[in-house]
Amino acid sequence: EAQVTQNPRYLITVTGKKLTVTCSQNMNHEYMSWYRQDPGLGLRQIYYSMNVEVTDKGDVPEGYKVSRKEKRNFPLILESPSPNQTSLYFCASSFGSSLDEQYFGPGTRLTVT
Amino acid sequence: SQQGEEDPQALSIQEGENATMNCSYKTSINNLQWYRQNSGRGLVHLILIRSNEREKHSGRLRVTLDTSKKSSSLLITASRAADTASYFCATDAGTGGFKTIFGAGTRLFVKA
Predict the structure, then answer these.
(1) Which of A3, A44, A98 is the best substitution to test chain B (most B C-beta atoms within 10 A)?
(2) What integer best gives the mean pLDDT of chain B?
């Protein structure tokens, strides 16, 4: 089954404790992206990747890191999480670019206390 | 930065009625896409309209695009309770397929 998976689905952590949210797709997609969703703000793009080893900032990259060492994986790293990073996070992938239909993961609800 | 902005923010209708949501954007675009989100879940792609198209249909969905007004509308005909969800428009904000900009969304509630 074609899908985007994220782990963990729920995470409660404390300020400053490094964490990684994994994202994997099995569709051989080139484009992958991370978004955060906050009430009333829709989805905002954090980082995107056009292909392996090619990543770039979205609209809200501060406090986040990403890597794309393999085509299927695109982990999101929070080196020192802060309470303002409490949010619902989505990973998505598409065939070639943001011009194509994006397939979304189920989301990761992160709470930073 | 917010590119797409939907209105209304929320819409409540009776089953069987039509629902219209609007999206405005600020820069040139290559295409505009509409997505649906059931409460707290991942978004699902509904329909894509290219910048050189004016109207597109898919089942009960009709999308229009007016590039001169930088706006799009999504019409859902004969709404069902199962259409209750949030609807978002998304564009690449003219970046050539690099970035994705979503609007804040319209919450649709269809009463049975």
Answers:
(1) A98
(2) 92
